[in-house]
Specification:
- This protein has 648 residues and is an alpha+beta fold.
- Helices cover 19% and strands 26% of the residues.
- Helix 2 runs parallel beside helix 4.
Length: 648
């Protein structure tokens, strides 16, 4: 049983190890506590995801967490963030997890590491790489041989990197989670958990404290816990703390009480109100947890941003917005909040708070309006956007089949017969994953959307070009539908006829913008404004003012009259905007993507209709965020706070 054994047998090596100065961290089952270097230990931790925060701000956010009185942090490692294609690893820049761990240690934190392989985290596909779906019948998070082979290879790369950071090796990592909330997954494959436990032990050694996390209910712990992995629970404010820990005691009769995810806020979805959880409620429940001597991790302490395409989605299909603010104690931009200080006051009751000033909220600057000019539409720019060229197939292929993980794919075919009267173009099997922009002969005719709009009427002559631009809005990150294929995942029909003979273009939009490949449109006399336009690029630039100290500063880009699309600044993908659906309106722009030495280029891909039909149009940089604007509330996505089973 290594260090995870009972009472007096455990204490002897701890005392010896401590007397020799060797660091040790273990579970004391006799006294129901953690022991750090032989002494009773309890952690008060906060979640921070390095993948959602620019590297230049890691230190600022960590220092603010430290000054709140936390003695540990918790972080996920998203597999797909580091291995976007098989065998090609990225651990530099914003992906330099080793630097992040060292920085945490230097500041004075211990670390609770959650390396997956599955993490959930409201992150695309729960952190699993999309290329796993090349085997279309793969059973993720199970003993499926192909899945296990990929996990073994990934963990064989990652865990040896983590081993020097274990506490007993002089690093900050005190505990390591195996998988994540497995008791909420349908597979209930104990052989899978046993394999992971053996795999982690083989790379991290016998002294590493390995744990699991599940909902605070016997049903979750039944499939989520395994002998040799210490079972912890998660639950949010307002619940019965005693009952929640009684559930943990069903799996772990002895050992420390641990809430691995105490929810300080909650996640958002496009089309639902921004989640807000009162600071007083969070503080009250946190006090109840600490009063019984439990260890706790506040999820999230800072949420950050789903830059680029990294947001996840839940079922029924509901993608999360670009902001992962989470109504956390530190805002998306790292700002101090009332909740931060309320939590700090509670922690003060249980441990000494570090002395000294708290790093201030980072300043924001309103750079004003930037006028944008119209560039090419996606069909016009196709040659410069599709680096891999056209792929022809009788039936449409998915993103994965086209070796495209994120973003957009253009599907093109021809109308097989005359549609003199409006004829329904349909996805009978709900195969639009996730949103599609339809045009005939270069004229936008409608939008198809997963679960919501499966048919649009089209008209045109036989042979007319039919384009369907499909947007991947984020893969499902939780529950049994995480094998979430993107694109046209089933056949399309026109009237009663199945469409055949497709040409598909994988679009490398990020690369094209970085390389400056988008051209300007030749001015034309535009007719009356249409309700819908072809997906079109717009671009402008602005210069950071001179004579003002400490610029550039963070800012927010506001696009209130734009409908839906993506924004890039200096080639950096800020993420999606969708103010017409809400709740998020503005996008956070970290100062690290701005330049004071050269003009800052702003590129917008508007998918539906830009506010530019009657003249110049622009975007506005403002100093305060708008995260809770008008929404199209979908009652089917409503659920009680803090109950993850509602997402199944």
């Amino acid at each position: 049983m290594h260090l995870l054994i009972l009472g007096s047998v455990l204490l002897l090596p701890l005392v010896i190890g401590h007397s020799l100065g060797a660091p040790s961290f273990s579970i004391d089952y006799k006294n129901d506590c953690f022991r750090k270097d032989g002494e009773v230990f309890r952690y008060i931790s906060g979640s921070i995801h390095y993948s959602r925060i620019p590297r230049v701000y890691w230190k600022d956010r960590l220092l603010k967490m430290y000054m709140a009185g936390l003695n540990a942090i918790q972080t996920y490692i998203p597999w797909n963030y580091h291995e976007e294609s098989p065998g090609r690893y990225s651990f530099s820049g914003d992906r330099d997890v080793e630097h992040f761990l060292q920085l945490a240690k230097d500041i004075g934190f211990l670390v609770i590491l959650r390396p997956g392989p599955y993490i959930c985290a409201e992150w695309d596909m729960g952190g699993l790489p999309a290329w796993l779906l090349k085997k279309d019948d793969i059973v993720l998070r199970s003993s499926d041989a192909d899945y296990i082979a990929a996990v073994d290879k990934w963990m064989g790369t990652l865990l040896p990197m983590m081993k020097p950071f274990l506490y007993q090796n002089g690093g900050p990592i005190i505990t390591v989670q195996v998988e994540n909330e497995y008791g909420s997954y349908f597979a209930c494959d104990y052989n899978y958990l046993r394999h992971l436990s053996t795999l982690f032990r083989s790379h991290l050694g016998d002294d590493a404290v390995l744990f699991t996390t599940d909902g605070a209910g016997a049903g979750y712990l039944k499939c989520g816990s395994l002998q040799g992995l210490y079972a912890t629970v998660d639950f949010g404010p307002g619940g019965n703390v005693t009952a929640a820990f009684e559930a943990q005691r069903c799996a772990e009769p002895h050992g420390p009480l641990v809430n691995s995810e105490f929810y300080t806020g909650w996640l958002d979805h496009w089309g639902s109100p921004h989640s807000v959880v009162p600071a007083a409620l969070v503080a009250k429940s946190l006090n109840e947890i600490l009063a019984v001597g439990a260890s706790v991790n506040l999820y999230m302490f800072i949420g950050g941003t789903n830059f680029g395409y990294w947001n996840g989605a839940n079922w029924p299909y509901g993608p999360q917005p670009t902001s992962y603010d989470y109504d956390a104690p530190l805002t998306e931009a790292g700002d101090l909040t009332e909740k931060y200080f309320a939590i700090r006051e509670v922690i003060k009751l249980y441990r000494k708070i570090p002395e000294g000033p708290i790093p201030p909220t980072t300043p924001k600057y309103a750079y004003g309006t930037v006028v944008l000019k119209k560039l090419q539409t996606i069909p016009d720019a196709l040659e410069n956007l599709s680096f891999s060229g056209p792929v022809k197939s009788m039936y449409p292929q998915t993103f994965v089949e086209l070796n495209q993980a994120f973003g957009y794919v253009l599907y093109r075919t021809a109308l097989p017969f005359n549609c003199s009267a409006p004829t329904p173009l349909s996805s009978p099997l709900n195969g639009i994953h996730d949103r599609a922009y339809v045009s005939v002969e270069g004229v936008a005719v409608g939008i198809l959307e997963r679960d919501k709009a499966l048919t649009v009427n089209v008209s045109g002559k036989a042979g007319s070009q039919l384009d369907i631009l499909v947007e991947n809005m984020g893969r499902i990150n939780y529950g049994k539908y995480i094998n979430d294929f993107k694109g046209l995942v089933s056949n399309m029909t026109l009237g009663s006829d199945m469409l055949r003979g497709w040409t598909m273009y994988s679009l490398s939009i990020d690369e094209a913008i970085r390389e400056g490949l988008l051209g300007e449109m030749t001015p034309t006399d535009e007719s009356q404004p249409a309700a819908l336009a072809l997906p079109t690029f717009y671009q402008g630039s602005f210069i950071i003012p001179e004579g003002i100290p400490d610029l550039p500063q963070d800012t927010y880009i506001n696009l209130p009259e734009w409908r839906k699309g993506h924004v890039w600044i200096n080639g950096f993908n800020l993420g999606r905007y969708w103010p017409s659906r809400g709740p998020q309106v503005t996008l956070f722009v970290p100062a690290s993507v701005l330049s004071s030495a050269a003009p800052n280029n702003v590129t917008v891909l508007e998918l539906e209709e830009a506010p530019c039909s009657s003249g110049p149009c622009g975007v506005e940089f403002i100093s305060t965020p708008i995260l809770n604007a008008t929404v199209q509330f979908n009652r089917h996505q409503h659920r009680r706070l803090f109950n993850k089973e509602d997402l199944l």
